[in-house]
Amino acid sequence: MLVTVAGVKKEIAEGTTIAKLIVDEKVENPDYVTVTVNDDFVESEDFTTTQIKENDSIEFLYFMGGGAF
Amino acid sequence: MAFTNEQMERYSRHIILQEVGVKGQKKLMNGKVLIIGAGGLGAPAAMYLAAAGVGTIGIVDADEVDLSNLQRQIIHGTADVGKAKVKSAKETMNAMNPDVTVNTYREFVTSENIMDLIADYDFIIDGTDNFPAKFLINDACVMAKKPFSHAGIIRFKGQLMTYVPGEGPCYRCVFKNPPPKDAVPTCKQAGVIGAMGGVIGSLQAMEAIKYLIGVGDLLTGKLLTYDALKMEFHTIKLPKHTDGCAVCGSHPTITELIDYEQVECDGK
């Protein structure tokens, strides 16, 4: 099924969960990533149970420090 | 307040802009921006705000200039190594534009001092490198109803978002709590390309300028990310409904400022 991951359209398998997508997309620091599906947050405890649906738009938001020192 | 001939010339490229004009330039000259961290992000932000004629600019940083800073912290020069960053920054800004009043605060932000530091300013720029400071700045700005720009940079990537009280989510809505010590690499551990501070810090200055003048759309309700290797900017829309947020939600559970364990500040 066709979905949008970080702004890029791609095919993923039916029934893919957020947790699976995090692995497939090789998300850095997967324990500390924030995820939105269709502009809504998905709680991290729901990553393994939340299945992605056709045409969903998924975004990964990463902790980023950097700056002063 | 009438402009001098010198000011008319100095700010002529602003004044000619329809969105700025004499009125907008006056707003900048009456504006007060506090920059927390005079480093990779704070350096370009401070320089562009000084050049723009923002009337009062505060700089908060307890550190001294280190040789390893100079690859990206362009407000400091080789002769400034060992000097307090706030002093070095002020000298550069005063040399660029004597119109600007630069207030220096040689300290780290803590739960004790941050409310006093931000109180007199219209807009806050978070140019810090560590998550305890980022969460502290967020919570303080939410509690004091101050708009601020968050940014982070690492390797070839950067991100920023703007919080305006009553308009969209805060940093804690997105990231909840600071990650544990060493769970997420810092610039010192992972490196950062020097010009990244220039790109993202300049965008923070742009947000402050737009906020002060009152034009355009800010990055409220959005996280802008930049990947220099792919040369791509990407805007991530954030949820509108964040009633459940621990600090900016309708029933906040965080009502006092928190000093999380400071872990990244040894990085210089």
Give a concise summary.
The complex is a heterodimer of chains A (69) and B (268). Chain A has 69 residues and is mainly beta.
Would you write up a description of this structure?
- The complex is a heterodimer of chains A (69) and B (268).
- Chain A has 69 residues and is mostly beta strands.
- Chain A has a five-stranded mixed β-sheet with strand order 2-1-5-3-4, with no helix packed on it.
- Chain A has one domain: Ubiquitin-like (UB roll), CATH 3.10.20.
- Chain A is globular and about 35 Å long.
- Chain A has one helix spanning 18-24, and strands spanning 2-5, 8-11, 34-37, 40-42, 57-61.
- In chain A, 10% of the residues lie in helices and 29% in strands.
- By secondary structure, chain B is an alpha/beta fold.
- Chain B has a single domain (19-267), classed as 3-Layer(aba) Sandwich (Rossmann fold).
- Chain B is 34% helix and 17% strand.
- Chain B has helices at 5-10, 12-15, 21-30, 42-52, 85-96, 114-119, 131-144, 171-175, 187-190, 194-213; strands at residues 32-36, 56-60, 101-105, 123-126, 148-154, 157-163, 222-227, 232-237.
- In chain B, strand 1, helix 4 and strand 2 (56-60) form a beta-alpha-beta unit.
- The N and C termini of chain B lie far apart (42 Å).
Looking at this protein, list some descriptive labels.
heterodimer; A: mainly beta; Ubiquitin-like (UB roll); 5-stranded mixed β-sheet; globular; B: 268 residues; alpha/beta; 8-stranded mixed β-sheet; 10 helices; disordered C terminus
Tally the structural domains of chain B. Answer: 1
Radius of gyration of chain A from CA coordinates? 13 Å
What portion of residues of chain B is helical?
25-40%
CATH level-1 class of chain B? Alpha Beta
Overall structural class of chain B, as computed from helix and strand content, comes to alpha/beta
How do the strands of the widest beta sheet of chain B line up side by side? 3-2-1-4-5-6-7-8
- Examine the coordinates and then state which fold CATH places here, giving the name of the CATH topology of chain A: Ubiquitin-like (UB roll)
Write down the CATH topology of chain B. Rossmann fold
**Greatest interface and its participating residue counts:** A-B, 20 and 47 residues
Number of helices of chain B: 10
